[in-house]
Amino acid sequence: MKLRAERKAGELLKRLERDQGRAGQERCPTSDNVPSPYAAALAGSGTTRQDANRWQQVAEVPEDQP
To answer: Taking the model in full, what pTM does it have?
Structure first.
Protein backbone atom coordinates (compact mmCIF):
# COMPACT_ATOMS: atom_id res chain seq x y z
CA MET A 1 0.00 0.00 0.00
CA LYS A 2 2.84 2.37 0.83
CA LEU A 3 4.36 1.99 -2.63
CA ARG A 4 0.99 2.65 -4.28
CA ALA A 5 0.56 5.81 -2.21
CA GLU A 6 4.07 6.99 -3.10
CA ARG A 7 3.44 6.29 -6.79
CA LYS A 8 0.20 8.29 -6.72
CA ALA A 9 1.87 11.17 -4.87
CA GLY A 10 4.66 11.17 -7.47
CA GLU A 11 2.15 11.28 -10.31
CA LEU A 12 0.36 14.23 -8.72
CA LEU A 13 3.58 16.12 -8.00
CA LYS A 14 4.76 15.71 -11.60
CA ARG A 15 1.65 17.57 -12.77
CA LEU A 16 2.27 20.65 -10.63
CA GLU A 17 3.81 23.75 -12.16
CA ARG A 18 7.23 24.70 -10.89
CA ASP A 19 9.81 27.28 -11.74
CA GLN A 20 13.22 25.84 -12.54
CA GLY A 21 15.19 28.53 -10.73
CA ARG A 22 17.97 27.94 -8.25
CA ALA A 23 17.58 24.98 -5.91
CA GLY A 24 15.40 25.89 -2.96
CA GLN A 25 14.16 29.00 -4.74
CA GLU A 26 11.15 27.60 -6.61
CA ARG A 27 8.86 30.56 -7.25
CA CYS A 28 5.99 31.23 -9.61
CA PRO A 29 7.27 32.76 -12.84
CA THR A 30 4.76 35.61 -12.47
CA SER A 31 5.69 36.66 -8.92
CA ASP A 32 8.91 37.08 -6.99
CA ASN A 33 7.38 36.31 -3.59
CA VAL A 34 4.85 33.54 -4.26
CA PRO A 35 6.02 29.92 -4.08
CA SER A 36 5.26 27.75 -7.08
CA PRO A 37 2.36 25.29 -6.72
CA TYR A 38 4.97 22.51 -6.43
CA ALA A 39 6.87 24.22 -3.60
CA ALA A 40 3.60 25.11 -1.86
CA ALA A 41 2.43 21.48 -2.02
CA LEU A 42 5.70 20.26 -0.50
CA ALA A 43 5.61 22.87 2.25
CA GLY A 44 1.93 22.28 3.01
CA SER A 45 2.34 18.52 3.32
CA GLY A 46 5.68 18.57 5.12
CA THR A 47 7.22 16.51 2.32
CA THR A 48 10.95 16.79 1.73
CA ARG A 49 12.29 17.51 -1.73
CA GLN A 50 14.20 14.22 -1.54
CA ASP A 51 11.02 12.21 -0.87
CA ALA A 52 9.14 14.08 -3.61
CA ASN A 53 11.90 13.31 -6.10
CA ARG A 54 11.94 9.63 -5.14
CA TRP A 55 8.16 9.37 -5.44
CA GLN A 56 8.29 10.88 -8.91
CA GLN A 57 10.91 8.32 -9.92
CA VAL A 58 8.70 5.52 -8.57
CA ALA A 59 5.78 6.91 -10.61
CA GLU A 60 7.84 6.60 -13.82
CA VAL A 61 8.33 2.84 -13.39
CA PRO A 62 5.59 0.93 -15.22
CA GLU A 63 3.30 -1.15 -13.04
CA ASP A 64 3.33 -4.91 -13.56
CA GLN A 65 0.37 -6.13 -15.57
CA PRO A 66 -1.52 -9.08 -14.02
So the answer is: 0.71
Q: Counting Cβ atoms within 10 Å, is residue 4 exposed (0-12), middle (13-18) or buried (19+)?
A: exposed
DSSP string, the chain: -HHHHHHHHHHHHHHS-----STT--B-TT-SSSBPHHHHHHHHHT--HHHHHHHHHHHHSPPPP-
The tens digit of pLDDT for each residue in 30-60 reads 556 678 899 999 999 999 999 999 999 999 9
In 10 A of CB 49, how many CB atoms?
13
**Distant-in-sequence, close-in-space partners of 60: CB < 8 Å, separation ≥ 6:** 10
Q: What distances in angstroms separate CA 61 from CA 13, 36, 64, 66, one per listed residue?
A: 15, 26, 9, 15
